[in-house]
Each structure stands twice: as C-alpha cells, then as structure tokens.
Amino acid sequence: MEINLSKLKAYGDTLNDGAVQVSFTLPVPAGDEAKEAARQLALKMGMEAPAISEMADLGAGFSFFVLYGKCTHTVDYSAIKIPKRQQEIMSFGEVNELISKELGRKMVVVAACTGSDAHTVGIDAIINMKGYMGEYGLERYPEIEAYNLGSQVPNAELLAKAVELGADAVLVSQVVTQKNIHLENLTELVELAEAEGLRDKVLLICGGPRISHELAIELGYDAGFGTGTLPNHVASYIAAELIRRKKTENQ
Amino acid sequence: MNAVNNKLDLDQAKVSLARDTAGKIADQLHSWIGDYTTTTTERAAARLLGIDGVDKGDVPLANVIVDKLLEAGILDRGMVPWLAGAVASRGESPQDIAEGLADGRFEVSSVPELPAEKWRGIADTLAEEAASKIRATRANREEIKKNAAPPDKPLLYVIVATGNVYEDAVQAKAAGLQGADIVAVIRHTGQSLLDYVPYGPTSEGFGGTYATQENFRIVRRALDEAGEETGRYIQLVNYASGLCMPEISVMGAIERLDMMLNDAMYGILFRDINMKRTFIDQHFSRMINAYAGIIINTGEDNYLTTADAFEQGHTVLASQFINEQLGLRSGLREEQMGLGHAFEIDPSREDGLLMEIAQAQLCRELFPRSPLKYMPPTKHVTGDIFKTYLVNGMFNLVSLMTGQEIQLLGMLTEAIHTPFISDRYLSIANAQYIFNNARNLGDEMFFKDGGRIKSRAEKLLDDACVLLQEIEKIGLEAAMENGFFADIKRSAEGGKGSGGVIKKHEHYYNPFIDLFMNNSAAEGEGHS
Lengths: 251, 528
What we know:
By secondary structure, chain A is of the alpha/beta class. Helices cover 34% and strands 22% of the residues of chain A. Chain A has seven helices and eight strands.
C-alpha cells in the first residue's frame, strides 16, 4: 500500500476512497427539494456521489442532513510546515529545578480571562493549585509565583497588574469565540503591550479551545496553547524560554 | 412519599441534622440582612411601581431616581417614601416623576418632606396595584398551563445563545416545536457586573443577549407561539443574578418568565460580587420570584466545573441545603426551588456512573419536593462529538432513573461552539429516546445493601453534615473566605458592588417586603 503524500485523500475503508461525512442544516423545510439542495451543496463541496443517510425535520422551516460521500480534493502533506514550540515537556519537579538552578529567583506569572469572557475553566486548570488531569497547577509550583486574576479582566488592567507584579509571563485565556470576539481581545492586548513598551519585557501567551500555537504567533504572541494542554506544558515553555532569553542577553 | 424517594435507606437523623444546621447558617445571615437595603433593591421597588425607560444618556430611570436619592442622602429611608411623597404633592404618576427628575424639571429637594400619613396610604395603594398585576400574570400562566398538555418529566431544558434576540426568538421557537419544555436565553457574558439593567432589544451581543424587559417580551411571544402550535406550555428562563438580581426578578415577574437562575452565593463565588450585597439582593430577588410563582434554579453545578466532582460532591449537597433554607426565608416554597447539581465526574473513572447515580438519587431523596435541576457534563467534554453524545445519553439515563425534574440537555458540540439548531435537535432526540425507552426504569430499581451506590450516598451525606457544622461554627461569610465552595476564596469586604449597600434608617419603608412575605395567595398551590 503506497500512500501518495503529495496527493493525500480522506480514508474510509480503502486507500484514496476519499470518504467523508458531513452534517449541516438548511433553512428550508424538510422534503424532496431540501434533499436535492443538500445533495447539490455536497457536490459543490467536492463530494463525489454524495449519499444522504438522514434528513430530519427540525421544525420552524429547518431541515438537518447527514451525508456520506467521496471527497475528490487532495492535499500535499509533504509540503506542510507547522511552527512548533521547541522545548521539551518537563515534569513538575524538573521545571522547579530548572528555575531554581538557572533563573535564581521565582518566576512570576499573571493570568486572566480577558474582555467580556467569564469562562475560567481553562485558566483555572492551568493556574489553580489543583490543576487538571492529575497535573498540579502553576500556583502549586514552589518556584513560580502565579496570580490568577479571574474573569472579565480588561486588557489594560491585566497589563497594569503585570507591571506591578513584575511578571515574566502573561497568560490570557479566551473561551468565548462567538463572532471572533477572542481575536479582537487578543489583538488588543498585543497592541496595548506594544504601545506601553512592554512587549519585549514579558512573554505573552494565549490559550483556549480555538487557539493554536500557529494562530498565537500570527497574532503576535510568543506561544499559544490549545485543547489538551496541561499545566506542566505551559510551565515548561515559560521556564525554558525565559532562561533561553536570559542567556542570549548575557552573551 | 413515592418509591423513588426511599431507596437509599438514609439515616433520617442525619438528614434532619443537615437541614437544621443549614437553617442555623441561614439564620446567622438573617440576623443582619434585614438591617440593610441596596441600590438595586430600591431600583427594583421603582420598577415595581412602574418606572421604566431611560433618560437621554440611556441611563435607566430607575437608576436616575435611586442615584439622586442616594446623593441627597435619603435613600436609607427607601425609595418609596420619597416617591409616594412626590406623587402626593405633585399629583403625578411615578413614571412622570422619574421623567421629571431626569429632565431636571424638579429636584429631589423640591419635594417637601411629608408626614407618614400623607404618603403611606399612596405607597400602599401603588404597591398593591403592582402586586395585583403580578398576581394576574401568575394566574394567566396557571390558566395557560391548565389548558396545555401536561409535560412528561424530566422536563427538557435547552439554551439558545445567538447574541441577537430576534435570532434567539427563531431558535427558541424551533426548540419548542422540537419538543423542548424549557428554553433559556443565554445572557450576555458581561451583564452580571453591570450595576444597571440595559434597555431595549439586543441585536448584537457576545455569548448571549442582555436580560432586558424587551428581550424577555420578544422571546416570551415566540415561545407562546410554539406552545399554541403544539398544545403545550413552554417555559422561559433567564438570569436573576449579578449586580441587579431583584430588578431582573421584577422584569421576569411582569413578562411571565417561568424560571430564573437565582443562586444565593453564585455571584460571590463566580463573579466576585461583594458578599453583603449579594446576600441582601438575593433576599428581595427571591421574594419577588416567590410571589410571581417563578421557579428558581440554583448554581451548585458550577462548583464542579472548578472543583473535582468526585471529591467535592458533598459541597454541592451542603450548598443545596443552604440555598433551600435561604429560599424558605424569602418566601419560596420547596416546589419553587430547582436546586442544582451536575453530572461532572470524570468519565474515565471506573464506576463513575455509579457515583453519579448515588449523588442524583441522594439529591432526590433529600429534597423530595424540589424540581431538581440536573446539569450536563461540560468539564470533561472535549471536541469529540461522538463521545459527548454518548456521555450525554448516560446523563439522561441517570436523570430518568433517579427522578430528576429539570434536565438541561447536554450538547454534543459542548466545548466547541454555542449550540447550532441541529445540536439542540440532536440533544432533544437523545433525551426523548432514553426517557421513552426507559420510562419506568426507576420504579424497577433498588440498590444493593452495602453496595457501592448506597455507601457512596451515605458518605456524601456524612461529609455534607460535617461541612455544614463547620460552616455553622465560623459563619457562611468566613467559610467563603476560606474557600469551602468551588475551591474559590472571597474576602468578606471585597468584591464588586459594596458601594450599593446601605444601612436602613429606622423609618425605612418598602411596602413590597410585607406584601410578598405575607403571601397567602401563593400558599397551598402546586403541591402536585
């Protein structure tokens, strides 16, 4: 079985069958016309021989579809390059040891959910003592001084607090992404930090279910963390990056 | 007591101990709550007396009048004495007087201070008129319900959250037509910290629409339409929480909302609102809900999104007992208290489902008359929609077999986006399948003596008793300072909105407190 990485196709049960599943709603009542509209839409998505396996009447003039088909598109996997955070993931003990040995002082981290976002699940998982999935949060690290400012913190207030506490890193969590509000919030923070001349003095890090490292870099952050991130992932990055920068400065 | 309520062989002495201890905790708070009022409590009284609308700068007239009385240093007597005095001396309606103050037609000081006999009668007449309107709205609800098909339980509760009230109305109606019994319109994430209630319809919001009277009206109409088309009554929910709890309750009472998220401690823990402010606000807010026949939902489920559901299950119980006792002291009946809890134990835990059954059954037996509100898994939900759909099915099964009443349906796209119309449809289909296919499972089921479920329930109750006794010893304020709930610590003097707390003058008067607390109209209803 030879996979052509320059022409990668979706896989159902046979190489290059292109099998995909799609579901969507149309704002028209369920019926033969709606079904035909769904089929035509699937064709335009690049699905060959789309089969509608389910049509449901959602009431109020809406219909829901589940379709299977063969996606004709291919992608060139061999040409894909994704920027990755370089450092390795260290354990709780390793991070603390590295900080005390190489930094010689406690690392200060300030974190918040900014803007109108009131969802602290993510930031709490990373910062709070208890942590997440058995990994202690940053508050528990003896070598880290962590401040969780909570939810709905204005960007300006977050930066003011970062200056007041002498933060090495600022962590921003954005969970609400309706109408891309998170992008506005995140961009505003970077612009504010630049305007205040703080951008080079702190590590700016963002996180949330819709955030990737790639997106973070694009927005002007030093790093981004998405779904599945554990506290030690973030701690490893901050510690290693801070120490790397310190060494570069001293050279 | 029916079969579902007596399966865990609970030690009734411990149940009484927990309830009595929570009662003492509530009494400690009530030793001072009555000595204070708040700006939003007074604004709620203004709204009850018909003051609505905004001034030229979009400031609600309820805020205008209360702020001016605060500035004049007489708000400690309550808003009503001055307003009734103004009505008496100027011969204008409360609304005209509020508008006159806002326009600068006259000042607070231009209304002479009258002896009580000159304004008291007017105040009481105006208050009784307001109360009779609320009673009429309540009677209207009962009437529509009587003519509608009685819903099966658990009731299907879904949320809409488009940020545009007109889109919310479309989605709410569709949800009603699909079989939802209860629809909540998610509130704008920023509203809890606004010290006023926005005015008019919201067409662009983030994470929801504002709780405004106009928005309430728009969605109410849409749900009534869906109800008429299907021969059912579809309940509308919003949030009487944040810095304006009593005002939002007033709006809900007027616009025939059926449920309000209305927790006694949520604002303190999760929005960092001042403790004193919240305890005073929740009291008046709940009185209004009680009188309006609104069912409150409490927010214990939230504890489990920050704290671990397996380790902290007893804190949910302790908080439910406290919420219940505070609710009773504001005139709420048990049938109006949708005490909250959640299915949040890590699904990878061995026998986690058994632990969920234990907690849900325990809640059912401890609060037999409460329309318990059961919240779906969110904390451990990832973007794997297929797994989430399955976990939501397990959640629905546990709810059915333990007799929960208000079932907030889990969305397969939880942790991805606010629900699509199809997500909601799939969640309703999931629940309808299980509720029908396993309808009488609870009646057939008993728990093994000494088994995992009974043992877990016993331990939860024991731990809740210990926790309640610790809280009673130090007081609820100190307990919250020490992070007893949700692993969150809040200082007694800190938090937002403390500036709106006012010590009452000895001549303070608010006619609604007596009206709502001596509520013979509501007694004896609804014991179904």
